[in-house]
Structure formats: C-alpha cells, structure tokens
C-alpha cells in the first residue's frame, strides 16, 4: 500500500510499480537449474524498459538530495522485490544495501567498512602478463572486508554472464526463433547452453580468466582470515555459502563439458556442509523489505526529534550482514527474504555434483528444510532435484546398455557419461496434473559438438526410492554456434 501511495507523487516509484506488474506478467512459474526463471520476451522487454526509467528517476532524486526519504526507500524496496521475482537475489541485495546506506546517512551512522566495490577492478591481463602474474594479493582484517571484495567479484561475474546470455539470446532468436518462439522453457535452456559453449573474443576470455583468478586469490585470503578464529560464526558460514554460489556460477558460466564438476567435489562438499549448518540453525535472512520499512519509520522519527539515540539499536544491523540471527523458533517468512545462497548452493550441488551419495543427501535436505527463499520452496526444489538425478541415471543406464547389454546396475555418479549429463534444465508442473515437464540440453550421443535439446514428461513419481517414468516427447539438434 505504501508503494501505491508513493507512486502517485514519485515518478521512480510509479515506474518501479509498473515494471513489477509487467514482470509479473512475464516471468513463468518454471525453475532453471540456476534458479533463474524463464520469461515471455515481449513482456520482459517492457518490464526492463520501465525498470530502467524507474532507476533513472531514483538516481536523479538521490543526486538532487531528495529531502523526503519515503519515495527513495520505497523505490529500493520495490526494486529488490523486482529482482527477487526475476530470480536475481544478488541484484536484490545491492538495492537493499543502497537503501540501508541512505538510511545510515540520514541517521548519522558511520559504515564500519569502506566500500571496496568501486576501487576493485576485475583482474584483466595487462600487456605481457597472465592473470596469475598480476600480483593481486590482499589480506582481510574482517569478514566485512572479505564480503565487500566478494561482492565486487560477484558483480563482475554477473555482468560478464549477462553479456554472454544476451549474445546467445540474439543468436537463438536470429537462427531458430520459428522453432522456439512458443516454447520459452526450451528456448531458455538453449540460450544458457550456447552462452557456455560459444567461442569468446580475446577480451572476454581475458575478463573471464581475471575473475576466476580473483576468486582463487579471494579464497586464499579468506582461508587465512578464518584460520585466525572467525569460523564457524554464522556470518562466516554465510560468507562461505555466498562464495560457493559466486565461484560455482563462474565455473559453470563457461563449460564445454559437464566434466568440470568432477574436479570440484571438495568444493561441493564444503558448500553443502555450510548450507546444511544454516538449515540446522534454522537461519533465515531477516525479511529485507520489512527491515527497510522499519528503519524508514525510525529515520523519519529521528528527523522530527533529531535524536541519534533513537536509531542506535540499528547500528549493529547495518550492512553488510543485516540483523542478528532469528530465534530458534522463528519460522522463515517468504515475503522479502531473497536468501543468501542456501537454496542456490544446495540446488547446484544436487544438479551438478555427480557423487551419488552427496547429491541425494542434498535433495533430501532441500525437501526437509521447511524453508522459503524468494519464490522457491525447499520441498519443490528437492523434488525437482530428485527428478534431475533420476533422469541422468536413466540416461546413463541407456548408454551403458548400448555398450554392455548385460549391465543393469545404477551407474557410479562419477562414471555418468558426458552424453547423460544434463547441461541446462527447466522444470515445471501443470495445475491438476501429477506430471513434471522437463526441457533440457546435453551432449548428443555419437557427436563431439552441438547441443541436443530434449523435452520429457515425468510421471509415476516414487522419488523416495529414486524411481520415475520419463517419456521423451521432443528432440532437436543444434550445431556448434561456429558453424
């Protein structure tokens, strides 16, 4: 209601609310293996145009020293809800930090840590140098410093990934729009797979290598910090979860083969352990929208009374880590909680780690977590994870029977062949049907290149024992993007 009231007088809020409405008509109730969500392109274009206008108006208000806090903070809240709905929690976090920074300035609070995101540059190779020779070294004195550096790396990786997805999307719409215009799930899968396998320019490759090197150096510096006694505090565990999400996203961002995951088992295991701790602690991020609106009320009272002490209780709750952990009996509230990577970590492990024991433990933990993050429930994601595992196992058995007809046992996960490993997956259900529809890409059998795009219907679900029936309903082949 506050957003609607503010939209009558504040252009930023008006366009933000309009963008959120257009986005709600655009985003489909489907889940990609990255937890991003397919959308209708025409409606998404409208939503992004309105969103850009809203951000431009908000930036102008901030630059001009807008005296009224309400339109600015309400705008930030609507922006973070927009990004949560879009499936982009990292951008939502940036809007939350912007709102909190503005509130801190109004309340006279001082940030504990300088903002490193402006002076950190992705590690691009200079003339005659490789990323490993650039000499990027840093020592973290606190978790807050480590978080700021991680956010800068994450933002750089996000921007590169978004750029690659735009190029792949243009390629798909140019060459195959007639085949996929009415099938957003399959289109989304193909766009994501092409963005990972298409050739890169020298500049983009250097950018990617630099970000990867930055993550490695960050990991070393963070390990030194945690060895000094910060671990296993809740904030340290949250930091490790967020690091896993950022690093694994970059690894998967450029992968011509799903074999990259086999060398990443230790990281998968560590990511699972950190996420499991947060689930066991019943940790949930404080509802961010509620947090910002509560601080807005305090700031407005402070402006009237000029009483700094009235806001002192919020000093420990300012970014980057937010409020203290909730009580053990606190039930996670979905509204305004965009998560700090628990679901992203667990779903990535379940989808990409081919160790049979670990990926099944992860799917079970999702189901039993009793959590909501953004639009996602742990139970639904755990179900989808088990379906992906069962489909890969079935495809692997089919391959093994072709090679050795007498083989009938479940494949060892690390031995799942490349042609049975799903690269990108989109899953969704239909109202009133006990059916899960799957669009996925994988390496075609008997081919060293190209992408096989397949669609399945999953029925007869008995995922307690890992059984399901899959019917192949459609299959297309796309050649290498260089051809």
UniProtKB/TrEMBL annotation:
Q: Which GO terms describe its molecular function?
A: DNA binding; metal ion binding
Q: Residue ranges under compositional bias (Polar residues)?
A: 307-318
Give the residue ranges for region: Disordered.
307-330
InterPro entries per record: Transcr_Regulatory_Proteins
Specify the superkingdom: Eukaryota
* Key words, A-Z: DNA-binding, Metal-binding, Nucleus, Transcription, Transcription regulation, Zinc
Could you tell me what this protein is called?
A: C6 zinc finger domain protein
In which organism is this protein found? Answer: Zasmidium cellare ATCC 36951
Its lineage reads: Eukaryota, Fungi, Dikarya, Ascomycota, Pezizomycotina
